[in-house]
Write a structure and sequence with these properties.
single chain, alpha/beta, 7-stranded parallel β-sheet, 9 helices, binds nicotinamide-adenine-dinucleotide
């Protein structure tokens, strides 16, 4: 589904991002995998090369909150693979502190990683996609971007912002044939989930109509659809992948 396309995936070292990288490679894309540390990036690359030594995949660890670093990374990917067709902004962090314990610097940090880094990626890749005649940007939202959550206000706030950025850029970049969508996962089995206290996890999982949490591969399938030409008339969409948890 992605033969000949080039993708950049942030937060590609584990969890949902790693599943996206693996699925994109299986579907014929060349991929630049970005992570927060070169050591974890190298581990992820080794894991992928153990699956298929011929996978066209490279890895880097730029500071996504630094626009100049992101711009330099996009230029390096274009230099290596010749183009960039797909950007998946997936890197994200979470915290669940109640408001009265929430440190202002933690709020700022979560907005930096979950929102500013997404803006930086979109801002840096848009001129490349525009020059090529189009592209697909897919951001990572969350089911909490619809109703909020009862503690940890920074995280849902950041994901509401991701939805706003997604819908606005879809309108702004549509004339350049750049589609901008977001995937909004529900509770998904990754490290982020393992970090949640059991009582929180049980409370979140119990009412899910499909009766279970999602797997990273199930979320990755939605990124594949939105990245591919099968979604050529889909833009500005926030695609929920949550077992109907929001209903
Ligand atoms: P994860 O913790 O397993 O992986 C997060 C990835 O982001 C890692 O590759 C990590 O290196 C990268 N990352 C974190 N901070 C970074 C930074 N400062 N700079 C660069 N990279 C950084 O998380 P996950 O569960 O796979 O989540 C991926 C995305 O999906 C996130 O945006 C998250 O908010 C969203 N999401 C996850 C769930 C869930 O239940 N797992 C639900 C809804 C939304």
């Amino acid at each position: 589904m992605l033969k000949g396309k080039v993708a950049v995936v942030t937060g590609g070292t584990r969890g949902i991002g790693f599943s996206v990288v693996e699925l994109f490679l299986k579907n014929g894309a060349s991929v630049a995998l970005l992570g927060s540390r070169q050591e974890t990036v190298d581990k992820a690359l080794a894991k992928l090369r153990a699956i298929n030594p011929d996978y066209p995949v490279i890895g880097m660890a730029p500071d996504l909150t630094d626009y100049a670093a992101v711009e330099a990374t996009m230029a390096a990917v274009k230099e290596k693979f010749g183009r960039i067709d797909i950007l998946v902004n997936n890197a994200g962090i979470s915290a669940r502190d109640p408001l009265l314990q929430y440190k202002p610097e933690d709020f700022e940090h979560i907005m930096d990683v979950n929102v500013t880094a997404v803006f930086n990626g979109c801002r840096a890749v848009a001129p490349i996609m525009k020059e090529q005649g189009g592209g697909s940007i897919i951001n990572t939202s969350s089911m909490v971007s619809i109703y909020g959550q009862p503690a940890g206000v920074g995280y849902p706030t950041s994901k509401f912002a991701v939805n706003g950025l997604t819908k606005s850029l879809a309108r702004e970049l549509g004339r350049s044939n750049i589609r901008v969508n977001a995937v909004a996962p529900g509770v998904t089995r990754t490290d982020m989930l393992v970090a949640l206290p059991k009582e929180v996890l049980d409370r979140v999982s119990a009412p899910i109509p499909l009766g279970r949490v999602g797997e990273p591969e199930e979320v990755a399938n939605c990124f594949l659809f939105l990245a591919s030409d099968m979604a050529s008339y889909v833009t500005g969409e926030i695609l929920s992948v949550d077992g109907a948890a929001q209903t």
